[in-house]
Design a protein that fits this description.
Length: 44
Amino acid sequence: MKCGVGLCGSCCIGENNDVSVCKDGPIFSSEQLKQLPQFGDYKK
């Protein structure tokens, strides 16, 4: 992550990029992860 406070947007996930890993995480429950379409999707 670039900034660590949610300003750069590299941490945004979710259907509408409404979850910021650096602000809302990095620890998520399994129920929260199941709702994220990117969970389990790997891109390089």
